[in-house]
Specification:
InterPro entries: AKR (IPR020471), Aldo-Keto_reductase (IPR050791), NAD(P)_OxRdtase_dom_sf (IPR036812), NADP_OxRdtase_dom (IPR023210). This protein has 10 helices and 11 strands.
Amino acid sequence: MTLPTRTLGTLAPLTVSTLGLGCMGMSEFYGSPDEAGGIATIHRALDLGVTFLDTADMYGPFTNEQLVGKAIARRRDEVQLATKFGNERLPDGTGLGVNGHPDYVRRAAEASLQRLGVDHIDLYYQHRVDRTVPIEETVGAMQELVDAGKVRFLGLSEASAETIRRAHAVHPITAVQTEYSLFTRDLEDTVLPTLRDLGIGLVPYSPLGRGLLTGAITTTPEEGDSRATGYFPRFQGENLASNLALVEQVRALASDRGCTPGQLALAWVLAQGPDVAPIPGTKRVRYLEENVGAADVALSAEDLASLEAAVPRGAVAGQRYGDMSTIEE
């Protein structure tokens, strides 16, 4: 099976599968790590034509890149491999903050290449913007990696419109990764118009609202899952009850369309433009297969209007993070 492809960026274009796969949860944050399940899911993804894989050095920390490296060891040529630097952590998980210093960029890239077992990274993102370092210096170091053949394309994650413009002036930015779903649409104000103006692709993470929009979550997740903590306010108390009521609206519309709520929510993201390639995350083959089915859900203008009436922009309760200090606005 081969999924359709989409092209991210115009000055530095990268062709990827219409849907990607976020690998973070295979190693950390959403319950227990599952390396075997994660590798099986990646292999099934490649078989289904999902070739755009997303990881980061901080996931684990470090273990997710190792997992992805094992999974693609014999299939590297099939993959558009994305990873990130900038959220610096110690091996025990201690966070050291955001780091965009040029020397750190170089060290982080070398370490990621070793863990992934590859000689180049297809798309290298700055995971969060370091406000203490001019973006021109950080992107300048990233450009050196492109010139050396260690990285093919550059990206940013959770950057403001102004930062994106400044970065793009140093070296073409191929894609910007940020949270985007029926539940999170704030980027439509300034970031998305800037991407379209500059010819930069959008890679939405958490396009299923961290699982809420699948309809599979009905209570606060169990202890050990970061969604059970105040770090994710949308899963807490009255916020969760309010958000689940919105999910029921999506479920009803999905039933009418003959698909699952998650497929409908993903189809909405895909319908936002041919320059949009979401990366829903999962560590389970069955959820991967369900997500891939979203590519076959074609939405009419009426369908889109019904969805946006059911989940009005700004209707979701709670901030997407308890601490939004590293998110540029």
